[in-house]
Structure formats: structure tokens, C-alpha cells
Amino acid sequence: MDGDFDDSDQLIANPNEIAAGLAAASKPPPSLPTRLTMAMIDQNFTNFSLSLTLLFVLAMAVRQDLTEQRISNVLTLLGFATALAFQAISGGTSGFLNALAGAGVGMACLLPLYFGKGMGAGDVKLMGAAGAFLGPSGAIVAALLSLASGALLGLVVLIWRAVELKAATAPATGTVDGSIVAQLRKQRFPYAAAIAIGVGATMWWSGMLEVLIP
Fold this sequence. Notes:
Elements: H1 8-11, H2 15-26, H3 32-68, H4 73-115, H5 121-169, H6 178-186, H7 191-206
Helix pairs in contact: 3-4, 3-7, 4-5, 5-6, 5-7
């Protein structure tokens, strides 16, 4: 009769759709080794990005300190913000808080030298930005190594500049007069180099540099 239709036409599914559904249902979930491998790849990418970004920030800070005798707030702020973002993405709230704690510890370790006129505010901010990448424990190690590196480099630079000044002002007498001492006291030491050494050594010690080696 006109207008009649067979209900079986609507009930019978396409054989291809049935086969696809059965294949999807029978497909086993990724095995544990596969899931761990995928997680490791993601974690390695995060570690690679963290390490490379931190090295870039350190290199730029050293360059600025050597050429301009200052470290820009833009550089340290961008480094700090990048560390917070990466840590939050990889570790969630705990990673974000860990980065904040690392920044606070790093700055706190160098604040006494800043108040004692031993370094500039940019150096303290740089250590804070590095601490956000390293976390609290890494920030402590990096700060201690930076202080040790700063003492050694400062002594080397002081001796080198004293020899230069003595050769320029008193080549004949071979003595260091008061004017040379006064000039040495005014010399500014680029502490970003010491911080870069301390942070770099901490990165090597903690294995952060391994992801950069193919």
C-alpha cells in the first residue's frame, strides 16, 4: 500500500558501522609501558623547555650586566612568569606553589648582600627568577654556589684591576697608593656571572642539563 515502509530498513545498521563499532570496542586500552612512555615524553619536553629557558635568561642577564652594568626588570620578570607557567602546567597547584617558594628562597638568600651594598637589586631578582625554575631546595644550593663563585670571581677581578690600575698610575714605584684603593672600591662587580655559574652548577648536579644532551 502506498506510504507503507518496512521497519526493518530502519533497524538494520550499516555493516561497516557495526564492524567499526566492534573494532573500537575490542581495541585494548594503551598498556602501562605505553602510558608511561607518553608521560615521559611530555615530562622530558617540559624539562627541556625549563632548562633551555633558564639558560637563556642567565645568558641574557650576564650579557646585560657586562655591557650595561644592570639587569633589566623585564628579563627577570619574564623569566619568573615563564617558570611559574611551566611549573603550573607540569605540576598543577603544587608545581605553582613550588615555583613561588623557590623564588622566595632564592631572593631571601641574597637579600643580606643587597642590604650590605654587595650587589644590586637586579642580582637578587635574577636569583629569584632562577629559584622559580629550581624549586626551594635547588634555590638554596644555587644561592650558596653563587656566593662561593662570587667570592672567587670577585677576588680575581679585584687583583686584575689592581694590577691594571697600578701599572697605569705608578709604573715606577710599584706601590699602591690611596687613590688606587679608592678607585677599586668604586669598581662594580658583575654578579650575574657568579649567579650563572652557581645556577648552572646546580642544574648539572640536579640533572636538568641532561635533557639538552642528545
